């Protein structure tokens, strides 16, 4: 029997899978890197390797951790390294609130409601955005123009829904997938199979619906209209990395919010186009049974009376919560505004508004917890899924159960970053790497594109976003700071690269689950089937998202509140 010849794509995927499987558990990887850092510190210290810090002329030499002083730092600092690791507390606090919202059933009900009422949801979104823009914009002509454009867009959406409801359905599935990342990774478990069922109910290929949902959930992982659990996690790691060369530097949780909000519409449209233009024609007509199981019908049926009441309760709670937040920052006496004027400033009116509300911006993680908890409890009361305080606490406890492996990973990651900092290896690598890149004279834009590609390629063999960033950030953030690029800019570029290849990475933690979902409709499906279906999304997302990022950078638009793109290397000398 002759062996079937593998295609180039199959051979490539086999290599990716083998390389990925060869890698140890991320926690083991960080433990190994920590040990390696200790050994390298002794080697480089004994070799007498030194670097000169730009701006100050200070000579930087490696600190040998294989000494009595080094051993004391390791043993005495172990607990503090772990407990003081910036991402740990922020992720735990945010997920406690998300756990309440998820445990109440709010998140599942919202996703179902959005998918089932796509046209109404789009109309409501346009009205909301138009109303906010009209209030926020100053020139009168813009206040007049925005409502007119909003009405025109609603007319277009309703007309399109009459002629091509399939396009509206696809768009809302991709869009919902992107938004689902606010609640961590619930979209993988809930929305991906729901996308298949919705397409099956519309007499369309269910795998195409699954692909559209998967593209939004995983390919659009970093885009969102709201802050999700990934934002404080990455910002914490970026802060730790920036402190290698600038000890006082802090990366905000909102560091990339502006860019990621703008990305949503581009990724949603791109995902819709790929589904209709490439994926559905390639899959052809579905040859399986169009009959849905009772379980499937249960998932797509209209929201129950209790669920609708829960949504109303949560909506009212959300409005109240937003009003309370507004009262903390809009009045001049708001408690979450600066209490004292900075030196050299005579009036708050002379300051940027984002600078005036800095205490509020630094409290974002607290408001993720409070908002999710408030809305989740309101929904639980209305839907009768919460009947006592014990139910609320159980929801929080369930969210913590999923973090066991993450906490183990954080322990070793925190030690690695601390050792990397103590030994000065990160600083020396940043200085020498920056000098090398300056000698190449690539220019900022080619360098950013190359970094996005690097992040995308590494993502193929290492699935965890936090694990990859924990390795890459201590190297690239200091290096790029010496080249005049802010940590916020470097983090934004990483998030683009990390997202676009999620959907074709066999190492992504939910990839096996996606294969199982696909096999329900195609018994012969495997890794190659899923990757072949998702590659068009990955390519188009990479081209569009990278282009958007470069345009954003070229125009100098802020990536987020209090989030510069440019870093002045002369500040490293202070």
* Overall pLDDT: 82
Strand content: under 5%
Our Rg estimate from Cα atoms comes to 25 Å
Largest sheet: 2 strands, antiparallel
Shape: globular
Instruction: Classify the secondary structure makeup into a structural class.
Output: mainly alpha
The helix content, as a percent range, equals over 70%
- How far is the N terminus from the C terminus? 72 Å
Q: What are the low-pLDDT stretches, counting only 5+ consecutive residues below 50? A: none
Strand order of the largest sheet: 1-2
Outline the secondary-structure elements.
Layout: H1 8-22, H2 26-47, E1 51-52, E2 59-60, H3 68-83, H4 86-104, H5 106-116, H6 118-136, H7 140-163, H8 165-179, H9 186-201, H10 206-219, H11 230-242, H12 257-283, H13 294-300, H14 305-329, H15 353-356, H16 358-361, H17 364-383, H18 389-401, H19 404-422, H20 425-440, H21 444-461, H22 465-482, H23 487-500, H24 511-519, H25 527-555
Antiparallel strand pairs: 1-2
Description:
The protein is an all-alpha fold and 574 residues long. It is 71% helix and 1% strand. It contains 25 helices and two strands. Helix 20 packs across helix 22. The longest helix is centred in the last third of the chain and has 29 residues. The model has no long low-confidence stretch (mean pLDDT 82).
In short:
It contains 25 helices and 2 strands. With 574 residues, the chain is mainly α.
């Amino acid at each position: 029997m002759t062996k079937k010849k593998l295609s180039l794509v199959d051979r490539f995927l086999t290599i990716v899978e083998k390389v990925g499987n060869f890698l140890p558990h991320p926690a083991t990887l960080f433990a190994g890197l920590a040990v390696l850092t200790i050994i390298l510190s002794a080697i480089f210290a004994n070799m007498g390797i030194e670097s000169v810090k730009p701006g100050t002329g200070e000579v930087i030499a490696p600190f040998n951790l294989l000494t009595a002083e080094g051993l004391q730092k390791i043993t005495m600092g172990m607990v503090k390294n772990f407990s003081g690791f910036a991402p740990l507390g922020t992720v735990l606090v945010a997920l406690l609130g998300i756990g309440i919202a998820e445990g109440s059933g709010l998140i599942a009900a919202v996703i179902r409601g959005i998918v089932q009422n796509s046209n109404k949801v789009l109309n409501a979104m346009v009205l909301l955005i138009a109303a906010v823009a009209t209030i926020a914009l100053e020139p009168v002509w813009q206040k007049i123009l925005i409502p007119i454009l909003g009405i025109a867009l609603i007319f277009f959406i309703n007309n399109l829904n009459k002629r091509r409801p399939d396009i509206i359905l696809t768009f809302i599935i991709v869009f919902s997938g992107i938004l689902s990342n606010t609640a961590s990774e619930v979209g993988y478990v809930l929305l991906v199979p729901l996308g298949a069922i919705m397409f099956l109910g519309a007499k369309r290929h269910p795998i195409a619906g699954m692909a559209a949902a998967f593209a939004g959930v995983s390919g659009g992982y970093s885009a969102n209209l709201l802050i999700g659990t990934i934002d404080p996690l990455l910002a914490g790691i970026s802060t730790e990395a920036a402190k290698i060369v600038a000890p006082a530097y802090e990366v905000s949780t909102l560091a990339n919010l502006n860019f990621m909000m703008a990305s949503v519409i581009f990724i949603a449209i791109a995902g819709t186009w790929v589904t209709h233009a490439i994926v559905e024609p390639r899959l052809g007509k579905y040859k399986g049974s169009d009959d849905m199981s009772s379980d499937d019908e249960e998932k797509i049926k209209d929201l129950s009376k209790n669920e609708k009441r829960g949504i109303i309760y949560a909506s009212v709670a959300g409005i109240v919560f937003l009003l309370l937040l507004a009262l903390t920052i809009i009045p001049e006496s708001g408690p979450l505004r600066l209490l004292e004027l900075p030196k050299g400033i005579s009036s708050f009116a002379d300051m940027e508004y984002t600078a005036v509300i800095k205490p509020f911006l630094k409290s974002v993680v607290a408001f993720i917890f409070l908002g999710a908890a408030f809305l989740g409890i309101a929904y639980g009361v209305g839907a009768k899924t919460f009947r006592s305080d014990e139910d609320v606490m159980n929801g929080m406890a369930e969210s913590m159960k999923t973090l066991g492996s993450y906490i183990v990973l954080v322990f070793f990651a925190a030690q690695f970053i601390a050792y990397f900092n103590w030994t000065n290896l990160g600083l020396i690598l940043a200085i020498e790497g920056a000098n090398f890149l300056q000698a190449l004279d690539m220019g900022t834009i080619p360098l950013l594109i190359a970094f996005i590609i690097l992040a995308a390629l590494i993502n193929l063999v290492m699935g965890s976003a936090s694990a990859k960033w924990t390795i890459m950030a201590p190297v690239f953030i200091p290096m790029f700071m010496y080249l005049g690029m802010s940590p916020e800019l470097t983090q934004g570029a990483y998030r683009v690269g990390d997202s676009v290849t999620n959907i074709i990475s066999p190492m992504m933690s939910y990839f096996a689950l996606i294969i199982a979902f696909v096999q329900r409709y195609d018994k012969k499906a495997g890794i190659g089937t899923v990757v072949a279906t998702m590659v068009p999304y990955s390519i188009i997302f990479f081209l569009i998202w990278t282009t958007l990022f470069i345009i954003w950078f070229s125009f100098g638009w802020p990536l987020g509140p209090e989030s510069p793109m440019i870093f002045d290397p002369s500040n490293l000398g202070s």
